[in-house]
Amino acid sequence: LLMKDKILLMKRKILLKNKILLMKNKCLLMKHKFLLMKHKILLENKKLLMKNKCLLMKHKFLLMKRKILLKNKILLMKNKCLLMKHKFLLMKHKILLENKKLLMKNK
Questions:
Q1: Which residue, among 77, 102, 97, has the nearest Cα to 89 in the 3D structure?
Q2: How far lies 34's CA from each of 27, 31, 51, 57, 92, in Å?
Q3: Which pLDDT tens digit goes with each residue over 27-55?
C-alpha cells in the first residue's frame, strides 16, 4: 500500500508539473500573440506614416505648382500692361507723325 501511495503521489506530482508547464506554454503563447499584434500595429503605423509623407510631398508639389501658376499669371498681367503701354506709345507716335505731316502741309 505504501508503494502504491508513493507511485500515486509521484504520478500526481508529475501531473502537477505538466499542468504548470502547460500554463507556462499558454502564457508564452499569449505573450507571442501580443508581440505579433504589436508588430502588426507598428507595421500599420509605418505604412500610415509613409502614406502621410507621400501626401505631404504631393501637397508641397501642388503648392509649388500653384505658386508657379500665380507667378505666371503675374507675368502675364505685366506683359498685357506692357503691351497696352506699347500700343499707347505707337498711337501717340502715329498722332505726332500725323500732326507733323499736317504742319508741313500748312507751311
A1: 97
A2: 11, 5, 26, 34, 86
A3: 999 999 999 999 999 999 999 999 999 99
For residue 58 the three cell numbers come to 504631393
DSSP string, the chain: -HHHHHHHHHHHHHHHHHHHHHHHHHHHHHHHHHHHHHHHHHHHHHHHHHHHHHHHHHHHHHHHHHHHHHHHHHHHHHHHHHHHHHHHHHHHHHHHHHHHHHHHHH-
Dist. CA 59–CA 65, nearest whole Å: 10
To the question of pTM greater than 0.85 for the whole model, the response is no
